Amino acid sequence: MTNEDILLIAGPQGRDEELVAAAAAHHPQRVTVLIEADDPNWGWSERRIASTRRDRLAALLTSVETATGATVVGLVGDPAALTLGGFDAIVGSSTYLRSAA
User: Fold this and answer.
1) Pairing mode, if any, of strands 89-91 and 71-77?
2) Residue 35 CB: number of other CB atoms within 10 A?
3) Is residue 96 part of a domain?
4) Residue 99 falls within a domain, yes or no?
5) What's the pTM?
6) Is residue 32 part of a domain?
7) What is the pLDDT of residues 36-51, one digit of tens each?
8) Is 84 exposed, middle or buried (0-12, 13-18, 19+ CB in 10 A)?
9) 62: domain range?
10) Domains in the chain: how many in total?
């Protein structure tokens, strides 16, 4: 299956390898990686949790790009704030998979 533009929603840690494999199965051209978190300061805060989120996002971006060859962008935030209809496929959180259908 080929889906040009996909959203990968990363919830709790521990499933990242599975999510990357699921994204690769779509053979995407573009991937948006979203780490679910309510943390508007994640990009600059020196708190440990913000640093951990940045490190996780960097690892996911690298893994997805390596596995798919796609253009990859990433952010941390609430999936409800995104227009989910703009993606050909959504990989990750089952809550948003149901709401996008």
Assistant:
1) unpaired
2) 23
3) no
4) no
5) 0.84
6) yes
7) 887 767 767 788 878 8
8) middle
9) 5-91
10) 1
